[in-house]
């Protein structure tokens, strides 16, 4: 009986992992092309039974974490310019967890803003759908930022210019998507939505940099090329 349960668990795990090959690019494409629809989709899916949630896309936290794994793999496997830490972050798994937490600060802060604008009391229950929805919108920006950071240190001609263009494009896309999200889903004016977006991005950037700076306390860091 235990062996059969193990086989069933392996079957489910294998199918889940293989299905990511289809649903990761599909989810990414939908997030880039229709970010506002994906916000509504995430909030709606959490009202369904757990076994029926996110049947046509990846779960937002898994989507974000897979993006970081892919970006980390590209950084270490293609560009060979990864940071080498000593201490706690010398383990690549710990480094990935740190990056996941740092980048999750963006959807977390945005989720808090949406809860406040919706007039609900902040709780784990009210924050979750807002956080999930903002994960979808944050992933394309995270991917653009990660790729831009890789290109900056790449030994290629005009790599810096390409990195700058990629970062600016990702930032503009992110700002527009967030502004539209505030306007449509929270019924705010354009000017107020732009203000909420600016505050969220700036706070997210400060918290992100503070988190990464604290990581340096674990030990020296060098960069391999």
Question: Would you give an account of this structure?
Answer:
The protein is mainly alpha-helical. 76% of the residues lie in helices and 3% in strands. It contains seven helices and two strands, in the order αααβααααβ. α1 crosses α5 and α2 packs antiparallel against α5 (124-152). The longest helix is centred in the N-terminal third of the chain and has 32 residues, at 2-33. The N and C termini lie far apart (51 Å). Mean pLDDT is 85; it is low at 220-224.
Helix content estimate: over 70%
Query: Mind summarizing the main beta sheet?
Result: 2 strands, antiparallel
Given helix and strand content, the structural type is mainly alpha
Structural Rg: 19 Å
Give me the strand/helix succession.
HHHEHHHHE
Overall spatial form: globular
User: How much of the residues is beta strand, in percent?
Assistant: under 5%
The strand line-up of the biggest sheet is 1-2
Number of helices: 7
* Topology, number of strands: 2
* Average pLDDT over all residues: 85
* N-C termini distance: 51 Å
List the uncertain runs.
220-224
